[in-house]
Amino acid sequence: MCPTSDTVSVALARSLPVPRVVPVVDLSAGARGIGCAYGVGPGGEPDLAIELIVGSIDSSFISEQEARYQRAVAQVSGTITFTPLAGVGAQAVLFESQQTGYPNNNGILATQGTTDLFVAVTPPATVPQLKAFGNQLLTMAGSP
Question: Which residues contact 113 (CB under 8 A, 6 or more apart)?
Fold first, then answer.
């Protein structure tokens, strides 16, 4: 189940509409996931996107996602940077993206136990907001 718009709005200090559930694809065997999208930005992308994947987790989740996003951003003449981020789950990175024709965004990729997390926010959230929200989502998913 997606976090409510009230939960997300408080965590990120912005007003967001009711989420819509979106499919999570390319899951490992035995894994299950939920995708949540809140609002629609100028480029047609959500203002906030969340993916929580629980179950059979690939230990290379973060590095695979970094490579995937670098390829996607390069196709639209953009840039994306990844920085290790302490204090969220067992392992996490902060990403910051600039893409031609799209507003800047940022977010986190994190793992904890058998849970992988992806959060992308447009316009960018503060790092303390992302850290607190990431930990809140990991806890909600059952990975303290």
Answer: 90, 143, 144
